[in-house]
Amino acid sequence: MKRLAILASGSGSNAEKIMAHFQHSAKAEIALVASNKPDAFVLERAKKFNVPTFTFSRKEMDAGQLLEKLREEKIDWVILAGFLLKIPVALTRAFPDRMVNIHPALLPKYGGKGMYGAHVHEAVKAAGDKETGITIHLVNEHYDEGKIIFQASTPLTEEDTPESIAAKVHELEHRHFPQVIEGLV
Ligand SMILES: Nc1nc2c(c(=O)[nH]1)N[C@@H](CN(C=O)c1ccc(C(=O)N[C@@H](CCC(=O)O)C(=O)O)cc1)CN2
Ligand SMILES: NCC(=O)N[C@@H]1O[C@H](COP(=O)([O-])[O-])[C@@H](O)[C@H]1O
Q: Number of folded domains in the chain?
């Protein structure tokens, strides 16, 4: 049984879909949900699924305390689902090809520092793009430059707003991320 940890900084709607997907799985289990925000709603979602939680600061992550916890819990895969800090290289190297992230755009467009959450959808709207989508990729030491595993797109119209774009992207994420993880682990 593979042991998966989810890292998230906010609401955790993707984390919830992933926990529900693996709730009765014989292949993998969500062994930990960890956040850098003690008040992140993802922690409440984890408690609903009886998944253990762990909180840490950027300083503690950079000092190796998150890696220590992942090793203690014998984690096989790390899933970034709305995690908003850069994973230090020591941590990415501890999980080579075993750390995956979801990005709310069609990389390589709209990636890199500053490109997260609503900032991404606002940039897509400002550019007048006729489509957007999601990218699921392996994680390396740089933001959003790891090997792309999966992409899915959705059309946009001039009537779309950053909020409606976000809703379309979330729908794609919730539909695909759990299945892609299932195929990876
Ligand atoms: N080493 C890596 N770490 C992370 C990656 C990655 O690919 N490699 N992906 C991100 C997730 N992400 C996009 O998918 C992303 C998240 C956050 C940022 C960003 O600019 N963050 C701000 C800080 C925001 C905050 O403190 O609330 C910043 O760095 O200034 C960019 C991309 C997760 N980690
Ligand atoms: N660049 C990273 C980034 O922007 N990640 C995005 O944060 C949201 C988290 O939503 P959730 O907390 O409801 O799962 C998701 O849309 C995810 O793609």
A: 1
Supply the CATH number for residue 132's domain: 3.40.50.170
Q: Which domain holds residue 160?
A: 2-184
Query: Model confidence over 70-121: pLDDT tens digits?
Result: 999 999 999 999 999 999 999 999 999 999 999 999 999 999 999 999 999 9
Mutate to test the pocket of ligand 2, among 35, 100, 134, 173 (most ligand atoms within 8 A of CB): 173
Q: In what order do the strands lie in the sheet with 99-103?
A: 53-55, 28-35, 2-7, 77-80, 99-103, 131-138, 148-155
Q: What is the ipTM of this complex?
A: 0.98
Ligand 2 touching residue 105 (CB < 6 A): no
Q: Which residues of 103-129 are buried (b: 16+ CB within 10 A; e: fewer)?
A: bbbbbebbbeeebbeeebbbbbbeeeb
Minimum CA distance residue for ligand 2 atom 15: 82
Q: How far is the CA of 85 from the centre of ligand 1 (A)?
A: 5
